[in-house]
Design goal:
By secondary structure, the chain is an alpha+beta fold. The protein has a single domain, classed as Deoxyribonuclease I, Chain A (4-Layer Sandwich). The chain has nine helices and 16 strands. Helix 3 crosses helix 4 and helix 6 packs parallel to helix 8.
């Protein structure tokens, strides 16, 4: 009998709360922050670093990572074997999404960054119709890397993202996820002979009871019956309407499917299918298709998502997720359990307003 090829992988996904966003995120004044010892930068990031050392992940996916921040300096000073790929949010932001990988375990095959916004100069749809040209011009990003394991030669597509927060604009978040999935499909097709495994860690700013989560984990979703302002689940309202909303939804549906990925690297070139902006097929409806259907590590292991991954004065619920898509067999050995007896973070033991997600799994052919 031929022996199987197998390896063990450990993944961390963590919104670490950028130091420069403390005031806005926690709704505290700078003076109040200065008087709270556990919000001091050295204290917070030493705690984050301790958790990384404890879990010893092979790959880290960070949201709200600061380009010249404390954590990056700690990586360098402690001589951990991580290389980091970072994408800063556009505009006057200092933070963004980063992927750190163990360079002793993986070879970096390819990397790119994705601005989750439209490219008006390349896509003339906005000059031809009435739809809002700024709908997908928000300052959210995704970072993507393709890694090859030195041990097994398995290929991994790793994606890290942080979507728009606005609880009433799930239409934008659905468009952002569509861009990410189309990009993942493009990369997977380019490496189709490698049986590439996809890992996606994100702060979706959406709950598991949302159209965004449904789309990620399903083959398709029908936009025709989606209630636009309830798509992200933050309002705790049903996002599916009993009546057709074609006339209301056609505009942003067409903007989703005509907004395409933007890469910094031309190694992979996207060919887009153009859609008619003013017509739709009555029989087909307004369907968004997902060819990279993903499963949740936590739901597969525990039968459910964590009760809450983010606890603040304004919100308590699950925003953070770790997904995968693979043709290999996966055995999920463990996930990091999320505390359920805490009412608000950061605190002395938890340095961010989000809990980290962590999974250890075996993958084999």
């Amino acid at each position: 009998m031929e022996s199987k090829t197998e390896e063990n992988i450990k993944i961390l996904s963590y919104n670490i709360l950028a130091q420069n966003l403390l005031s806005d995120s926690l709704h505290l004044s700078n003076e109040e922050i200065d008087n709270i010892p556990y919000l001091e930068i050295d204290y917070r990031f030493n705690k984050i670093f301790e958790k990384i050392e404890e879990l010893n992940p092979d790959i880290c996916l960070f949201q709200e990572f600061e380009q010249n921040g404390k954590l990056k300096n700690l990586f360098s000073s402690k001589k951990l074997p991580y290389d980091t790929i970072f994408k800063k949010r556009p505009g006057n932001h200092q933070e963004g999404c980063a992927i750190s990988y163990n360079k002793k375990k993986f070879r970096l095959e390819y990397f790119c960054s994705l601005e989750l916004r439209s490219e008006k100069n390349k896509n003339n749809i906005f000059s031809k119709n009435k739809y809002n040209p700024t709908l997908y011009n928000k300052e959210n990003v995704a970072t993507m890397v393709v890694l090859e394991s030195y041990e097994t030669s398995f290929y991994y597509l790793i994606i890290c993202s942080h979507l728009l927060f606005n609880c009433n604009r799930g239409d934008i978040k659905l468009g952002q996820i569509y861009q990410i999935i189309q990009s993942a499909l493009l990369i997977k097709n380019y490496y189709k002979d490698k049986r590439i495994t996809t890992i996606f860690g994100a702060d979706l700013n959406s709950t598991q009871n949302s159209a965004i989560y449904e789309f990620i984990t399903s083959k398709n979703i029908n936009v025709e019956f989606l209630s636009k302002y309830n798509l992200s689940g933050q309002n705790n309202k049903d996002y599916i309407s009993s009546e057709s909303l074609i006339e209301e939804n056609l505009g942003w549906y067409n903007e989703i499917i005509n907004t395409y990925p933007k890469f910094n690297n031309n190694k992979i070139i996207l060919i887009t299918k153009k859609y008619n902006s003013d017509e739709y097929d009555d029989e087909k409806g307004l369907w968004l298709e997902n060819k990279v259907v993903m499963k949740s590590f936590y739901k597969e292991k525990n039968g459910k998502e964590p009760k809450a991954t983010s606890l603040s004065k304004t919100f308590q619920g699950t925003f953070d997720f770790l997904f995968y898509n693979t043709s290999y067999d996966i055995e999920i050995k463990k996930v990091l359990e999320i505390p359920e007896n805490i009412t608000c973070i950061p605190d002395q033991d938890n340095p961010s307003d989000h809990f980290p997600l962590f999974v250890e799994f075996n993958i084999h052919d």
